[in-house]
Amino acid sequence: MPELAEVEYYRKQWNPGLGKTIKAVRINSRVRDFRDCPVKEMVRRLPGRRLEASQAHGKQMVFQFEPGAWLGVHLGMTGKLRFSAADPLPDPHAHLVLALPAGWLVFSDPRQFGKILFEVSVHPPHWWTRLPPEILSRDFTLRRLKAAVKRHRNTSLKSFLLMQRYFPGVGNWMADEILWRARLDPRRTPGSLDDGEIKALFQRLRWVCRQSLRIVGDHWGEFPESWLFRRRWKGGGACPKTRGPLVREPVGGRTTCWSPQWQK
DNA sequence: CAACCTGTTCGCCA
DNA sequence: ATGGCGAACAGGTT
To answer: Which nucleotides of chain B have an atom under 7 angstroms from any protein CB?
Structure first.
């Protein structure tokens, strides 16, 4: 499920390990999650290191160890992080397990679209420092959005919002929520937007990120009934604004939910 | 049983 | 070169 706020939620699930020293690493190195990971080095060098801090950035996370080592985690489609007081051995999808003095930090991912990275270094690795500005940061500006619109004027708005190099953390449901609140038809192109519509998109982008972090990021809360999120999963839903029917069909290759009477 | 899936990357084409 | 699209990845769920 992981998009921006859900990633932040999962990041915190490893907080019980903060300040603790890794005793052992258990890994299923055959799975796809480790395709870009120096597995042997990680298994050799993580034990004895202390989990110092963690951060999330869009859908990407980093866990910082002392002395200098960095564990990158991307949850893909079905990845999860959890702390387990009992040995998670029975879980066949627990591909990475970090043993603490008491308990285990677990990464599980049945579908294996996630990605684990590892680097030993005093400084944070390039794959962490070269990420684009976060949507809620000062560097994410209307100017930047307009440049992206100009460059990708012919794709659908739906595909556009899913581009992580501009909108890190936005996934399928967030894109639909943002377009619904900006009253924009997901099949429209960025190039067709006027200045007011671009501004609305900018504001709704930031609003949906901020609110979903507040609701889901801390503790897995429920979105209010007023959100499209609550109606979008099954056919036959009604728009919370107009009470009219919602449409559910692929746009840009992804299942998309929108309200034709509300979004133009 | 078949269709579907909250993500990314690759190859193909214009 | 760059932009845009569709397939592929793998396994669980509806």
So the answer is: 4-8
